[in-house]
Amino acid sequence: PMDLSYSDQEKAFRDEVRAFLEEKVTPDLRDKVRGKAELTKADMVGWHATLNERGWLAPNWPKKFGGAEWNAVQKHIFEEESALASSPRIVPFGLGMLAPVLQKFGSQEQNDYWLPRILSGADWWCQGYSEPGAGSDLASLKTTAIKNDAGTHYVVNGQKTWTTLGQHANMIFCLVRTDKDVKQQEGISFLLIDMDSPGVTVEPIITMAGDHEVNQVFFDNVRVPMANRIGEENQGFLVI
User: Fold this and answer.
1) Residue 184 and which of 14, 56, 190, 215 are 20 to 30 A apart at CA?
2) Virtual torsion, Cα 155, 126, 100, 61, nearest 10 deg
């Protein structure tokens, strides 16, 4: 039969994680998580920083990128202990969604710039995929990105919706249409857009429960440097 008990080394790791969480999860934070109360931006940023300081923020990342490179058992132990300690979940957009894309498809320069900013919390990322007419059928998205004549920038126009925690974000990773004349899936690119750019507007969507977690994001002639495209042009579907 398979032995599912932890090794001595794994038990020591579990004790280390447990002690860390006992020390770092404040009663206020624990009560909010247990009561399913809304966490503030400060709560989320603070927990991100606490884990980063310990080197445990990015368990899946390779060590060469600043990750912990944990094995499956370590990840399981950390998840289990985090649940028992009522510690907050980490906002996944930069760490869990964008970072693997950068690590696989990004250039050296892109990785050297963006990955440390994800770890440090210098950038808060949100996801720009869904649109009013393109949710589960993502290939039908209509937000366009047209190259300027000099080939230095894209000019982006369109709208994204259901943008989770977009009200806190300063960056958004977006799928945009860069070619209208090919099969839908083949004309999409993956862009990183600064939300402080002129022409970006964020409007809250208030849910029936009265929560403000999701948003609409509008792009009106937003200039995005060509260097902010991840992967090849029109290969955005492959990237995601």
Assistant:
1) 215
2) 140
